[in-house]
Amino acid sequence: MIRLLLAEDEHLIRTALVRLLDLEDDLEVVVEAASGEEALERARTVEIDVAVLDLQLGGIDGIATAERLLALRPGLAVVVVTSHGRPGHLKRALQSGVRGFLPKTTSADTLAAVVRSVHAGGRHVDPSLAAEAIAAGDSPLTAREADVLELAADGAPVEEIARRAHLSPGTARNYLSSAVTKLGAANRHDAAATARRMGWI
Fold first, then answer.
1. β-sheet bridge partners, residue 3
2. How confident is the model over 12-26, as pLDDT tens digits?
3. Mean local confidence (pLDDT), 90-94
4. Alpha-carbon gap, residue 28 to 20, rounded angstroms
5. DSSP assignment of 55-75
6. What is the Cα–Cα distance from 36 to 20, expressed in whole angstroms?
7. What residues does CATH 1.10.10.10 cover in the chain?
8. Which residues contact 36 (CB under 8 A, 6 or more apart)?
9. Cβ distance 34 to 9 under 8 Å?
10. Which one of 24, 77, 169, 197 is most buried, by most CB atoms within 10 A?
11. DSSP letter string, 28-57
12. What is the pLDDT of residue 135?
């Protein structure tokens, strides 16, 4: 029996997924979680073989949750499902050790097959998401530019961005200006929107 942890913050979707997966003779959902934090807490006390995580979990996202789960349980297989298959998210997930990456439009049969595959040591990335990631290429932003741009995404003034990033206002402006130039954007808000759409922040 393959023991699953399922983390999904939308109750209706989580319940439906649990019921669908539990119909499989060799799969059993032993942990349901509504957040990344809850998934991590429960994973400390319950034996699990595969974690199925929503990318857009509240609090810490599915990829950050995957990283922490893998640090806690190195042999764990992780599958991330998403309604936003952005190229940067796929690359981040694979770099984090995630073995499966699927859109939420995937059928229950496919999800079950992917769970079995990753449990056996395989990998599975949805072909259309993989093609988009390859076409988009790597992020042109440095890690620091991405951090500062993410802080700018909610419209915060430069002084607040600098304070939150532990930088001087001039240095924060330089990072923002560099990010705007690299992304060919009109301003920092446009650059943040582009980077978010691509999954780079």
1. 28
2. 999 999 999 999 999
3. 81
4. 10
5. TT-SSS-HHHHHHHHHHH-TT
6. 21
7. 143-198
8. 7, 53, 57, 58, 59, 60, 61, 62, 64, 65, 68
9. yes
10. 77
11. EEEEEESSHHHHHHHHTTS--SEEEEETT-
12. 61
Burial of residue 103 (CB within 10 Å: 0-12, 13-18, 19+) is: middle
Give, in degrees to the nearest 5, the angle at Cα 113 between 112 and 119.
90
The CATH topology of domain 2-136 is Rossmann fold (3.40.50)
Domain 143-198 in CATH 1.10.10.10:
yes
Model pTM above 0.85: no
Beta-strand ranges (E) seen in 110-195 are 124-125
Using pLDDT thresholds of 50, 70 and 90, give the confidence band for residue 133. Answer: low
Q: Which two tokens stand for residue 67?
A: 């990283």
Q: What is the largest CA-CA distance in the chain?
A: 60
